[in-house]
Amino acid sequence: MLQAIAVALLILYAAIAWVILRGYRNTRNIGFLIIGCGVLVWPLVSSLLMRILTDSILYSSINERTAIVDSHILPGNLWVQLLLARTGNVIQAGLILIGLIAIERSVNSIRIAGDQR
Questions:
Q1: 25-44 per-position pLDDT tens digit
Q2: Rounded distance, CA 49 to CA 39, Å?
């Protein structure tokens, strides 16, 4: 069941990438690439950074004598993880917004240029 969900997710990501690249190829609008970064690239980079930082936080709280993590995640470490996760969401939303603004500006500039006869 989990493998089917993973395959479906991969197919959906491929379809999203195809639509974004097709839109960029047809219009040469950089906004499509920025949206692609916000939708496809940033979540992968963000999850990788979260894993690296979480592992470093957890390994810093390992008791050296017993090699067991003390209380799994300390309250301060939980706050740091939450802050990093929400920061990643803000960056993703910002990338998508900037991409949409770039696309909207190019559409408006084409419309304005077309009205001047």
A1: 999 999 999 999 999 999 98
A2: 16
